[in-house]
Design brief:
The chain is an alpha/beta fold and 413 residues long. The chain folds into 3 domains: 17-114, Cobalt-precorrin-4 Transmethylase, domain 1 (3-Layer(aba) Sandwich), CATH 3.40.1010; 118-217, Methyltransferase, Cobalt-precorrin-4 Transmethylase, Domain 2 (2-Layer Sandwich), CATH 3.30.950; 235-411, 3-Layer(aba) Sandwich (Rossmann fold), CATH 3.40.50.150. It is 25% helix and 24% strand. It has 11 helices and 19 strands. The protein has helices spanning 32-40, 48-52, 72-76, 96-103, 117-125, 164-174, 247-257, 274-282, 295-307, 344-351, 365-378; strands at residues 17-22, 43-46, 60-63, 83-88, 109-112, 133-136, 154-158, 181-186, 194-199, 212-217, 264-268, 287-292, 314-317, 332-335, 357-362, 381-385, 388-393, 396-401, 405-411. It has a 7-stranded mixed β-sheet, with helices on both faces. Helix 9 (295-307) links the parallel strand 12 (287-292) and strand 13.
Length: 413
Amino acid sequence: MRAAAQAPQADAPEPWLSVIGIGDDGLASLCPAARALLAAGEVVVGGARHLAMVPDHQGERIAWRSPLEATLDDLAARRGRRVVVLASGDPMCFGVGELLARHFAPAEMRVLPAPSAISLVCARLGWSPLEVEAISLHARPRSLLHRHLAPGARLIVLSHDGETPNQVAALLCAQGFGPSRIWAFEHVGGSGERRIEASAASWQPATLAALNTLAIACAAGPEATVRATVPGLRDEAFRSDGMLTKREVRAATLARLMPLAGQCLWDVGAGSGAVAIEWLRAIRRGRAVAIERDAGRCALIALNAESLGTPELEIRQGTAPTCLAGLPAPDAVFVGGGASLPGLLDACWQALLPGGRLVANVVTLEGEQALLAWHARHGGELIRIEVARIDALGAFHGWRPARPVTQLAASKP
């Protein structure tokens, strides 16, 4: 028998929202397809600099408001009209295209990127974009750089303003990376392109154009503290009042928590925030919430997050489990304190997303009883971690054992 013919599918509607990357030279940088879309646009959206590049466009003009999200309703209200958004370089590379893609369906959008500042700077220096770490400091804290500083690392930094190069040079020197080479590019890709090159230690303060991009070839000086992103930082890296998951136990704990790109951790009873901080250092696009009831420890967590390059760490002061409501759903939960509190382990287990991991550490008999009871109901794995360090015994040396840690690890189906 002949197969039944399939009914022809209707053509998908044309996207109404066009996002066009534009270079520093304005209209001259646009390809013919981008020029045609811009010319046909009924509404043009952009920052003041971008709108000034198209002074003769006859369509409705909308300038971005602050914050950018405030303008999204204006765009949605014009759904069905031909709306053109102008953005610098590649709109999907630390650009407004990422924001739009989170709020509008892919079928509603078309994106025509221009070369990004990252790719242009890499081309100037002969670097591969695949081998650099790209960081945006636009409206973000400079301390983000801390976790990326390592001998031999290559960084591309999108500046916040004309003072950013001076501030980054000072930060590198303060971290012991004064020998690092810095290239500052103004108006890269445009007719006014200019570069300044020097080591961080010899950098002379200068006022650069607001539109600038940095390249950094990291080199550590003799006084630099070099830290890996693999979990297990030295205990001395954290400010603490004694409530700290020690190095060897912390590394084993994070191995069970299994940090994965884009995932969220709750660090309950965070103490110094060490587990949450190492989670963020280990992955890209991660999220972590440190939950701690003591105000003084919350202040220490904030200081540790700043100094170790994870200023995005969210800190929630309160007592679990009552303060857990409203937090983003976790992919992993670490209970470092309070495991014996009634209902805490069950609340964390219920909050976990499918496939999520729960890890709890205790050193008291009461905490161990709570883990044993929970394990009897839900399963998982129980282990004991014991660490000993060499210590002086008069003129001799011997092993001084730390308190053993009982650890529960379980994965949610």
